[in-house]
Amino acid sequence: MVMQDAVFRRIEEKQEDLVALTCDLIRFPTVNPPGEAYTPCAEFLGERLRKRGFDVSYHRAEGVVGDSARYPRTNVVARIEGSRPGPCVHFNGHIDVVAAGRGWSVDPFAPVVRDGRVYGRGACDMKGGIAAAVIAVEALVEQEGGFAGALEISGTVDEESGGYAGVGYLAQQGLFSRPRVDHVIIPEPLNVDRVCIGHRGVWWAEVETRGRIAHGSMPFLGDCAVRHMGAFLQRLESELYPALAEKRTAMPVVPEGARQSTLNINAIHGGLAEDFEGLPAPMVPDSCRMVLDRRYLIEEDPEAVKNEIVSILESLKHDRAGFDYALKEVLAFQPTLTDAGAPVVRAVSAAIEAVLGRPAEQVVSPGTYDQKHIVRVGHLEDCIAYGPGILDLAHQPDEYVGIDDMIASAKVMASATLALLGSAAAG
What is the pLDDT of residue 144? Predict the structure, then answer.
């Protein structure tokens, strides 16, 4: 405990540095899509860690969807070896953020420190978490006597759009597999007293209804694809949404509303392009596209999830004159659940209780995160999400992270790391 107490004091002494690092990361407008400022943000993080003794490498996901000369998918991985052999604990954070959107009272990429909080896009999800992990690891490295094993930190891209060019790519390269890595903590914002042991499944798809173009004054000579989509939407409302509300899970998903199956309509596009100027043309639209975001439970069969949509579409094709459609799967990940008795779950849970003085809550995320690639591609089961930030603030205007929460979570991460490395009693 002597070493742990010394590390905690060092983290407290680094509060100003923690806040400054969070602000510095927010200033990089790493908006995805399209993938702005990934390389300078990754290089900033890598250079900081290189100066502190880490071996730093950069990994561009060339050839992966999204990567281009204008928007290179640049990831950074930093590693430092301890004074004696042991396992490796890896902290992974995504540097990409969603678009700022409307409704902000501050400039989303000019961070504001006020009332014990840091405001800015990505403060909560998840640059505050990255900063807390960096400070925790640096405090461990700076402690006299050293540590066993190895520590790694990665800053990865595209988590908000599936993570294929980020953790997915690195996992394919063997960077999230044993024997290189043993335990992974992802500092996502699931609240400072929670250990997130998994996530619901996701199935994204695009449905296109097809029609026949004609003059808008004579719609009877055409076939309106938007009306066909309206018929599909009506069936979703009358049949699928009520059925989903009845599907419940035993997984401890938060918030409560996410313990059922859900379906979000991400977008509908039909007829004129949204960026047209002037007056609209009198045309019957021959195409209408809808993007669906289906989140499902570990108790559900992935094929059944897809077939719910297919069966409605096929029924409409049979019952509705002229109805024709195309269905394209965009993204699919099955639910993930780490065993409650896994070493990383036990270590982080014990650290939360020691630091915060209350038992940790084990939860499941409503949305997927990069654990999916670590488990399925890297075949590394000992992975959880834990970090500062309030889950409900993610992707919201005036997003913020509490400074006290970042300090507390840095202590939790440091304490859990000592336990996982077997070094808690070494000092």
Answer: 73
Sheet strands (E) in 237-359: 262-270, 287-296, 325-333, 336-337
Is 281 found in the same domain as 382? no
In tens, the pLDDT along 152-202 reads 999 999 999 999 999 999 999 999 999 999 999 999 999 999 999 999 999
Residue 427 placed within a domain: no
Q: How many domains does the chain have?
A: 2
| CATH assignment at residue 114 | 3.40.630.10
Please state, as a whole number, how many other Cβ atoms lie within 10 Å of the Cβ of residue 163: 25
| CA distances, 296 to each of 55, 334, 383 (Å) | 40, 8, 21
> In the listed set 333, 368, 387, which residue is the last one of a domain according to the structure?
333
Residue 402 contacts residue 410 (beta carbons within 8 Å): no
Residue 159 known to be catalytic:
yes
Percent of the chain with pLDDT over 70: 99
Instruction: Name the active-site residue from 158, 159, 223, 286.
Output: 159
Q: Do residues 302 and 334 lie in contact, with contact meaning Cβ atoms separated by under 8 Å?
A: yes
User: CA-to-CA distance for 369 and 190, rounded, in angstroms?
Assistant: 11
Each residue's pLDDT tens digit, 154-167: 999 999 999 999 99
Q: Which of 36, 67, 96, 300 is catalytic?
A: 96
Q: Based on the domain organization, do 19 and 162 belong to the same domain?
A: yes
Q: CA-CA distance, 282 to 392, in Å (whole number)?
A: 43
End position of a domain, from candidates 333, 355, 382: 333
- What range does the domain containing 104 cover? 2-199+335-421
Helix (H, G, I), strand (E, B) or coil at 316: helix
Active site residue 115: no
Q: Which residues 6+ apart lie within 8 Å of 295 measured at CB?
A: 200, 201, 202, 258, 261, 262, 263, 264, 366, 367
